[in-house]
Write a structure and sequence with these properties.
The chain is α/β, with parallel strands linked by helices. Helices cover 43% and strands 19% of the residues. It folds into 2 domains: 10-230, Spore Coat Polysaccharide Biosynthesis Protein SpsA, Chain A (Alpha-Beta Complex), CATH 3.90.550; 235-311, no CATH class. The protein is built from 12 helices and 10 strands. Strand 1, helix 1 and strand 2 form a beta-alpha-beta unit.
């Protein structure tokens, strides 16, 4: 690997919080990368209390040209004001890289040529804004066996495919920094409606160029009890996010957003049966304004299934 002190072509963004059990494996995946270009890893510890920062300091001392840490004394994510995103963008902008890769502190890379493969493709295909690859899903509690993230082929992927299902793990993304300068990404980061960041980032990449996938499995997506996928968010917040997807990105993504919103609206029926009238009607109101016929259809089907399961076949 070339020296990474001068003008790295790629910046890795790693955000971590209380990942002491996992961060070593994540960092090992970063520093093992074999490339013919320079790169650095911005590792942001969000005021961890479990020793995560100590492990990062260990890697910082061993790989000072690669590991560029940010140690917070106050948790930024909990502010819910965009502070964490701004800090990472400013730190990335300081290097003016051509490409950005991502790896959360509880995920990890398994192929030392991962970055080289993806950058090689993007360097030779200037009309593509992103390259992603397959991954393994690992269930930390051991209740399920490992499996492939999705059935990915080595080829171009189109908007309809990418918005109809989650095909690529965030740790598989390598994309052009120019995506972050697009009006789509700017509108997304200035919105308060998004409760996830990887999907609108993907949509920003779609609006900025073509998307390519590599079938090689080069990372592990870890599902653990403390991860984001285990957190409970209200259906109302998801519906409001889908409405924002339609407003900003439109097109096929907007049509997929209406379908998703109608599915989320089914939670209103469950809440209604539990006596939570306020939240139930808030969900229906939002969904019906956004996708009226899809919402009615989804809820009628859901109500029929509930009745059939409760009273037997009609």
């Amino acid at each position: 690997m070339e020296s990474v002190n001068n003008n790295p072509i790629l910046v890795i963004q790693t955000i971590t919080y209380n990942h002491a059990r996992y961060i070593r494996q994540a960092l090992e995946g970063l520093v093992m990368q074999r490339t013919n270009f320079s790169f650095v890893a911005i590792v942001h510890d969000d005021a961890s209390t479990d020793g995560t920062a100590d492990i990062i300091r260990e890697f910082e001392s061993l790989y000072p040209d690669i590991i560029k840490p940010i140690y917070e004394t106050e948790n930024q994510y909990s502010k819910h004001d965009g502070s964490l995103g701004r800090i990472m963008r400013e730190a990335t902008d300081a290097y003016s890289p051509k490409y950005i890769a991502m790896c959360e502190g509880d995920d990890y890379w398994t192929d030392p040529l991962k970055l080289q493969k993806q950058v090689d493709f993007l360097e030779s295909h200037l009309d593509y804004s992103m390259c992603f690859h397959n991954a393994v899903i690992h269930y930390e509690d051991g209740n399920q066996e490992e499996r492939l993230f999705s059935d990915i082929e080595t080829r171009q992927y189109f908007e309809k495919e990418l918005t109809s299902g989650w095909l690529g793990a965030t740790a598989s993304y390598v994309f052009r920094r120019s995506v972050l300068l697009s009006r789509y990404f700017t509108e997304f980061v200035n919105s308060t409606k998004f409760i996830v960041g990887d999907y609108p980032l993907l949509l920003s990449c779609i609006r900025s160029g073509k998307i390519f996938a590599i079938s090689d499995c080069m990372s592990v997506y870890r599902i653990n009890p403390g991860g984001w996928t285990q957190r409970k968010h209200s259906a109302y917040k998801f519906i409001e996010m889908e409405r924002e997807v339609d407003r900003i990105f439109g097109g096929i993504a907007g049509e997929s957003a209406k379908i998703n919103a109608s599915k989320y609206s089914r939670e209103a029926l469950s809440l209604l049966f539990k006596g939570n009238l306020h939240e139930s009607f808030k969900i229906w109101n939002s969904a019906l304004k956004f996708a009226p016929w899809l919402t009615i259809k989804a809820n009628v089907k859901f109500a029929f299934r509930l009745c059939r399961s409760k009273f037997g076949r009609l």
